[in-house]
Request: fold
Amino acid sequence: MSDNSIDLHAPLPEDPSSRQHPTLSREQAWQLLTRYNQDPFHLEHARTVEAIMTYLAQALGYAEEAAFWGLVGLLHDLDFEQFPQEHCLKSQILMQEAGLDPQIIRATASHGYGICCDIKPEHQMEKVLYATDELSGLIGACALVRPSRSTLDMEVKSVKKKFKQSSFAAGCSRPVIQRGADMLGWSLDELIARTLEAMQAYERSTSPADAR
Ligand SMILES: [Fe+2]
Ligand SMILES: [Fe+2]
Reply:
């Protein structure tokens, strides 16, 4: 499984004959994640981004790769809790030590492009991760200030309003979100709509039946 000869700067192939399939199980990925992460907020962020990636893989025509996209989402911040100063760099070492597929290492690290690492998102999966990671934080913060504390009754326009209000959830980088939308060739509204839809599906799947 560990092939360090691959150049992590080389883009992943997009063609269907090179579909990415997971080389580790979801359980193995969870074990690795929880080896380096205990903070419930970080674990919930990992699960949320996993759900968004899985949902959007299916929505964007990558259903066969949905499990792979999900693993990338789950593991993307592997190093952040313990090594915030080496974010997206230390994760490459930890993942190599764990024998992970270089494609997962590359894809996860690329969400730090221009911020803490120089691996550029090239594959659609990497662009989706880059664009939705920060946005999921903003949408989560929007939910917390609603009476319902939920995404289910949220509309794109209310997220857009908070997006423009830079003091709100100031840690969620608006330039990164906008850059992500640009990378995908999507409008900001489209990116918000797709991400919100994915988060609503996730919330429905995790809510008790009587609260749906
Ligand atoms: Fe990150
Ligand atoms: Fe993240």
User: Anything to note?
Assistant: The chain has one domain: 22-206. The CA atoms of residues 21 and 68 lie 6 Å apart.
